Amino acid sequence: MRLLLSALMLLVFSGMAVPASFAESDCPDLEKKPVKVEGWISKKFKKERKRIFKEFKEMGHTRTALRVFPMGDTAKVVAIGRCVPAYIARHILEKTLLYTAGVGSLVNQAFLPPHWVGIGTTMFDEPSQQKVNGEQVKQLMDPSLSDHNFHALYQKFSIQDDMVPYFGLQRPNAKKVD
Question: Residues 17-26: what's their mean pLDDT?
């Protein structure tokens, strides 16, 4: 009985892991599963929030759950799931640069739902992120990138550091995804 239970648990938990090489072709159609955009816009845009929220939706196939950040500027963190089409991701990055504190870090896709985008989000700790510069963000916004090339570039830019600061010391990153 114990062996049967162990085998059943192994099957259940092994099915939860998402392989890193999961292709966009394995993603459900946007008609069935639209992209959810969640996060924050900067407080200075509070009076324009309804218009701004519509701008985030204008590409279609998206649902938004945006809020006004209560303390000024947002975090500079962006998270883009692996099934978000490049044209939607670029549109969201463009709007993020306009209405948040900017893009300073990308979250590794291993921590994200496939059809999800987070902007100005504070829900991911530093070990799950990687800092990016303006040139890297500009490369992501290149309209000539296909979905596959966009996500390959995003994954390249969001590889986490091997060592992270921990109480003043450098320790191995426990959240490192290989």
Answer: 48
